């Protein structure tokens, strides 16, 4: 069967282009979009992460400009803002620089949305930080999808977040400290909450196969969404790189980690890589794979692809593997 491609809700950058960089340009967004199309990703959410406020302002403004470009707009679902309203706790904050993490605040988010010309469609935050629940209420009532991520919230605060409008978990199973209580931890509640969708990085490095199997049984196909979490190092050769002022190593097998630590620094995978790793586990049928990599992210966002894109198959599925057509 032919497929038009995949939808990725979390692209931080690609092939040397960082969507959170202070010099991000419209042409760089165009380059990334064209390269992702070649790799089977037909539409995506460019993701802006925690950083210097002036950098955030520039990134949001540039991505808003890209959404006005007739060539780019069909491929850009809207902006995903991951941070800066996350936990500052080591492990939970992941690769986000601690100096620029902010307490959740409606007025601050309104300023971000103003810089983005209203194009922020997905917001990842930590529900336990003071001010988060008010921001969840405001954002969800404003039509923004609120995601829970990079947090260490207890069950009661997670439940309150869902009541206030949170709809999805960001890269569930990651963005947590290495050591957590075996029973009292954020994983179990989020896995078993039937009101929450969840995204998963199935690149072969972020999650073991048995966790993916458990997550599928908990969320079932309807609430399971694959994301790449690709960074600007995705598509580059193995080596040592600067990552927002910190040193990381991109290994030959594609794993990106902070030097001399157990912590990953995003992904070097495309959606095609993630979908093929998931397909290789033989947990899902072809139809189900298409749901978790294409239909479910669109349904969560309440978006549709343009007719032009929906008529352009870019992938085939054969021998339990997707390949470029």
Annotation keywords:
alpha/beta, 10 helices
Folded structure, characterized:
The protein has one domain: TIM Barrel. It is 33% helix and 21% strand. The model has no long low-confidence stretch (mean pLDDT 94). The strands form 4 sheets. Strands 2-5-6-7-8-9-10-11 form an 8-stranded parallel sheet. By secondary structure, the protein is α/β, with parallel strands linked by helices. The chain starts with a strand and ends with a strand.
- Which structural category fits the helices and strands? alpha/beta
> Largest sheet, order of strands side by side?
2-5-6-7-8-9-10-11
User: Sheet with the most strands?
Assistant: 8 strands, parallel
Quaternary form? single chain
**Low-confidence segments, ≥5 residues, pLDDT <50?**
none
**Continuous helix count:** 10
What is the CATH topology descriptor?
TIM Barrel
Helix content: 25-40%
Whole-number average pLDDT?
94
Roughly how many Å is the radius of gyration? 18 Å
What's the N-to-C terminus distance? Answer: 11 Å
């Amino acid at each position: 069967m032919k497929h038009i491609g995949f939808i990725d809700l979390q692209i931080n950058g690609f092939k040397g282009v960082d969507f959170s960089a202070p010099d991000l340009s419209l042409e760089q967004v165009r380059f990334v979009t064209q390269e992702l199309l070649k790799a089977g990703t037909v539409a995506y959410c460019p993701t802006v992460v925690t950083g210097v406020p002036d950098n955030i302002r520039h990134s949001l403004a540039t991505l808003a400009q890209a959404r006005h470009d007739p060539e780019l707009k069909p491929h850009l679902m809207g902006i995903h803002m991951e941070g800066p309203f996350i936990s500052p706790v080591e492990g939970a904050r992941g690769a986000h620089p601690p100096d620029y993490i902010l307490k959740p605040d409606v007025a601050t988010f309104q300023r971000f949305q103003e810089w983005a010309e209203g194009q922020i469609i997905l917001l990842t935050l930590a529900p336990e930080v003071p001010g988060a629940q008010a921001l969840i209420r405001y954002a969800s009532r404003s039509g923004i999808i609120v995601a829970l991520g990079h947090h260490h919230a207890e069950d009661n605060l997670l439940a309150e977040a869902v009541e206030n409008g949170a709809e999805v978990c960001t890269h569930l199973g990651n963005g947590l400290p290495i050591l957590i209580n075996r029973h009292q931890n954020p994983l179990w509640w989020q896995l078993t909450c039937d009101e929450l969708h969840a995204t998963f990085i199935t690149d072969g490095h972020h999650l073991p196969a048995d966790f993916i199997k458990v997550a599928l049984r908990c969320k079932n196909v309807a609430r399971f969404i694959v994301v790449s979490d690709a960074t600007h190092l995705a598509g580059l050769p193995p080596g040592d790189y600067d990552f927002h002022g910190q040193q990381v190593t991109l290994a030959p097998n594609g794993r990106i980690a902070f030097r001399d630590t157990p912590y990953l620094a995003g992904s070097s995978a495309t959606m095609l890589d993630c979908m093929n790793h998931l397909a290789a586990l033989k947990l899902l049928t072809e139809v189900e794979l298409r749901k978790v990599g294409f239909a479910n992210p669109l349904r969560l966002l309440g978006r549709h692809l343009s007719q032009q894109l929906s008529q352009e198959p870019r992938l085939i599925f054969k021998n339990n593997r997707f390949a470029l057509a």
